[in-house]
Amino acid sequence: GQQLNQSPQSMFIQEGEDVSMNCTSSSIFNTWLWYKQDPGEGPVLLIALYKAGELTSNGRLTAQFGITRKDSFLNISASIPSDVGIYFCAGQLFKAAGNKLTFGGGTRVLVKP
Amino acid sequence: NAGVTQTPKFQVLKTGQSMTLQCAQDMNHEYMSWYRQDPGMGLRLIHYSVGAGITDQGEVPNGYNVSRSTTEDFPLRLLSAAPSQTSVYFCASSYRGGGPQHFGDGTRLSIL
Q1: Which residues of A touch B (CB under 8 A)?
Q2: What is the model's pLDDT at position B97?
Q3: Is B107 exposed, middle or buried (0-12, 13-18, 19+ CB in 10 A)?
Q4: What is the arithmetic mean of pLDDT over A1-7?
Q5: Per-residue pLDDT tens digits for A63-113
Q6: Which residues from chain B sit within 8 angstroms of residue A40, using beta carbons?
Q7: Residue A98 and residue B104: Cβ atoms within 8 Å?
Q8: pLDDT tens by residue, chain B, 112 residues
Q9: Which of A57, A86, B6, B17 is the most exposed place for a label (fewest CB within 10 A)?
Q10: For residue B31, which residues of chain A lie inside 8 Å, CB to CB?
Q11: CB-based burial, B38-54: b 16+ in 10 Å, e otherwise
């Protein structure tokens, strides 16, 4: 089946830093989604990308849908403590049965001690 | 706004016991899905439904049953729990016409 490789698996941030994470696939997707999960909660949608090459922002978050449709990245600018959590990329095929998603393994964002 | 509601939030079972994880949504979404989340593996699709009376298998369906008698509810049943089913389970829903899935807060299940 399709697999999404998400990197890095974890990262430490210092307040004010910009951070970046990416996701690559062995096959193409028609939609890329980025979710954030806080402890004890379900994933919450951050950004949805629907076209190859699309660059979309949501506040301090920016995500891009790769030209090959096999990758996507998420940038967080000027990070703040509440950015801590797990970020997941997810791919979706056009008219996927049940709108089902394929998820990456997640990037755990932690605060530098 | 309730969104997607999952119960219980936590559960501990013994091997061989059965139980049902409940999921309800109040957004009139046609599609509903169950995922499990294991460390380092993201979320994997167990079963999904495109409408009342219609269900299908996802990536990891073995050991789980589902039914969809109403648009609002999509319960997940474990008939004979196994330690390998220890995980966090998420229910999600979305509109038929596409668009992102909305997730509940999860059920944390431990099987001893």
Answers
A1: 1, 4, 6, 9, 33, 35, 40-45, 48, 88, 90, 95, 97-101, 103-106
A2: 65
A3: buried
A4: 79
A5: 999 999 999 999 999 999 999 999 999 998 877 777 788 999 999 999 887
A6: 105-106
A7: no
A8: 579 999 999 999 999 999 999 999 999 999 999 999 998 778 999 999 999 999 999 989 999 999 999 999 999 999 999 999 999 999 999 987 667 889 999 999 999 9
A9: A57
A10: 98-99
A11: eeeebbbbbbbbbebee
- Strands, sheet with B19-25, edge to edge from the N-terminal-most edge strand: B4-7, B19-25, B76-78, B64-66
Q: What does R_g of chain A's alpha carbons equal in angstroms?
A: 14
By C-alpha distance, the chain B residue nearest A104 is B42
Specify the pLDDT at position A40. 86
Nearest to B31 among A9, A99, A106 (CB): A99
Residue ranges of B 70-99 with Cβ closer than 8 A to chain A: 90, 92, 94-95, 98-99
